[in-house]
Amino acid sequence: MRLFGLALAAALLASCGGGQVRRVSEPAARIQQLTVRANGSWAVEVRIENFSSIPMRFDRFDLQLKLGEDAAGQLVAQPAVSIGPESADVVTVNLTPSGAAKIAIADALSGGRSLAYSLKGDIAATPDEAKQRIFTIERSSALSPAPGLPGVMR
């Protein structure tokens, strides 16, 4: 009986643990959509993902975009957007791509093929009620032509 009482007391104490855990996790960034405009420039929708258990304000990012092994350009923005815990938001960046990148996207779009890309750089974010932190981002994925949407890769 005494052992049962101790076990019950320990279980009750363990269940009284504090409130929500405030965890700051590294965010992620990826391309949600790339649209080729008539003038040859691109509208690049960058999806920023907050994996933290608290809201974070994303102040700026500076990401090198590569298509395959070729540098396409620099995605730079100061969105100053707040993203809730374990949520995401999209920021559109205008980009004048390199000549090699224009050719690579045109080839992928005309052939209906996927194209590998990578993002590498930094995101500055401020966790709720804390000081700004710089997170290093490295992401590799692929874009594919969006069916029925000419000039759009997703």
Automatic annotation (TrEMBL):
Signal peptide: none annotated. Residues 46-125 form the Late embryogenesis abundant protein LEA-2 subgroup domain. This is Late embryogenesis abundant family protein. It comes from Lysobacter antibioticus. The lineage of its organism: Bacteria, Pseudomonadati, Pseudomonadota, Gammaproteobacteria, Lysobacterales.
